[in-house]
UniProtKB/TrEMBL annotation:
Protein name as it appears in the record: START domain-containing protein
Recorded superkingdom: Eukaryota
Keywords for the protein's UniProt record, in alphabetical order: Coiled coil
Coiled coil: 22-49
């Protein structure tokens, strides 16, 4: 190599480089030939007669293709609907109350559970506890621990049940009328209504020193309006009431309010008397508002 000229050495290096390149190309060509043979083998197998299980798989795949396309279209429609709904939701005012109050299964679960409680109340054998302007109160705390059960009723001669129940619903929805039913009521607000027969109401109860938040679920069904009072935690109910308006064939109608209220103080006897009388006074105030609002019927001569 030392005796070679620069030109000869360059030619030698070129031949070596060309030889290595040819060897590399030959290796690539052989690898490509092997890959082609593999693909030809696969293609030849695909042209051969398939097994029954493979044919079944092909048939199932072809059968599911239309269903898959239908699901794809449904997904696209749902995505479009969600996008449109999101655009509308952004334009709405934010909810000022707990989102559970707008959840119908949550609201109905409280209603049905508590309605069953109040439907079984029967104080027909209990003595009258108090009378006020024709209203009769029966109450007992012996039938259910930590609760006072009450029955407030009156035969109202100068009104009819259908108008009375309509006014009762109005009294629940109207802030001024609702707050006038008790000195302890504050900050009445109708959260929302459904089909005109179910409503969620927010209000506060003032105990003389402070106010506590409360919610009222009201449901009108036929001639009955059910009331369920929920605590601020939306877990427990503190009061349940069913107000019935029943026409009397002889004239007027029977106004019957039965319910239960939870007792929380260390003196349950005094608290039971106070809360039962509170419901009596509320019904009396309700009657006064109805007399001022609805035109009375002509008295029935008997």
């Amino acid at each position: 190599m030392d005796d070679l000229s620069e030109y000869e050495r360059q030619r030698l290096r070129t031949r070596e480089h060309t030889g290595r390149w040819r060897e590399k190309q030959q290796g690539n060509f052989e690898a490509l030939q092997a890959r082609v043979q593999q693909l030809e083998t696969i293609a030849r197998r695909m042209r051969e007669q398939h097994t029954p299980s493979y044919l079944q798989l092909i048939a199932r795949t072809e059968a599911l293709m239309p269903q898959n396309e239908w699901f794809r279209m449904q997904l696209l429609m749902q995505q479009t609907l969600n996008a449109n709904l999101l655009a509308h939701l952004r334009a709405l005012d934010p909810m000022g109350f707990d989102s559970r109050l707008y959840d119908m299964p949550f609201v109905f679960s409280h209603l049905w559970r508590n309605i069953a409680e109040v439907e079984g109340i029967d104080l027909s054998l209990a003595p009258d506890s108090m009378e006020l302007f024709g209203w009769t109160l029966r109450a007992s705390k012996l039938l259910k621990p930590r609760y006072v059960l009450f029955d407030v009723r009156k035969h109202i001669e100068l009104h009819q049940a259908q108008f009375s129940i309509g006014f009762s619903w109005h009294a629940l929805m109207d802030t001024s009328t609702f707050l006038s039913l008790s000195e302890s009521f504050r900050n009445h607000h109708v959260v929302h209504t459904i089909n005109g027969d179910l409503a969620v109401i927010y209000f506060e109860i003032f105990d003389g020193t402070s106010s506590r938040q409360s919610y009222l679920l009201v449901y009108r069904h036929g001639n009955v309006i059910y009331h369920v009072g929920l605590s601020a935690d939306l877990v427990s109910s503190y009061a349940v009431l069913a107000v019935r308006h029943m026409d009397d064939p002889q004239g007027g109608y029977f106004h019957i309010a039965t319910g239960q209220q939870r007792l929380t103080s260390a003196s349950p006897d005094e608290e039971a008397t106070r809360k039962a009388q509170m419901h009596l006074l509320m019904q009396r105030r309700w009657e006064q508002h109805m007399d001022l609002t609805l035109e009375p019927l002509a008295p029935v001569l008997r």
